[in-house]
């Protein structure tokens, strides 16, 4: 009998792993692999909306820092992981990479970073792909997916949105800046200079709602987080589940997105439950899809890099789609993830072969997959 696979669904496993090896690590592909899809998703964001990005299962991936090239304010990015060790490492690494020359925090210019190296022993190097992605306040380069950056002729052919790179505000900086003739003008409140970092269990609704505002994220990104969650055992669910698809007369979760995460609409009165509710088991990714749907805005994108060609059991193309949620559980109000998400795109990404220069490498073809899911307009409500 072969060795057991690592317990990828255990937070203790990841805490131990990140503690023993705190160096930055990216699963499957470099952080820039998702750039074209992130750019397209942000371009589709409403002009009146400031995009908020939820990076799930951030671990020690460089994607967290790479995402800063896609937005105007670091606070638009929310990195979550159920390993506290990973979150603590991420906070420290961000503070070390994006610091003023005086070492007191981030400077006014987004590309201003410490020249010192910070690695697992206390010194950090700024990786090339992060350096390239954040070195210009105009966004990332055309190769990786331009975001509001002028071309060589000075023409901007990329649509931009409020809060994403390249958005030009009409507000003059002198509107709020005090001057000798107008000393009474209040100074603007400085924007948060760092991303948000939170330890969260994505499969625990109380944990998720204590950290994330419902209906507030326009983009969800991940690199192999769903792969790790898929390693978990099926999740027991007893009806009535706290989330359901919204009836027309009940306020949606997104209506309270401007309030603190825990301040959700009070649930309508429920009929008395049966003495003993049956328990059903569902795939962990089915539960994840329902939870993320509660956090996402209509038409939000969920971009996932995975090693699996059939990662999500609730998608129509999946052979498991019929059994993703037991019919009896759906009849008792559990949200159908197939009604909440649709597959917009699935793209194969072949890994680059390695070998000696000038020599052909004969090895099996290794392919990873990028999934782009779009959130439907079906709303989710708390019971």
UniProtKB/TrEMBL annotation:
UniProt KW Methyltransferase keyword: yes
Superkingdom in the source lineage: Eukaryota
Gene3D superfamilies tied to this protein: Vaccinia Virus protein VP39
Listed Polar residues bias regions: 114-157, 166-184
Keywords in alphabetical order: Methyltransferase, Transferase
Compositional bias ranges of the Pro residues kind: 262-273
BP term (GO), one: methylation
Family: Belongs to the methyltransferase superfamily.
Protein name, entry field: Methyltransferase domain-containing protein
Protein species of origin: Mytilinidion resinicola
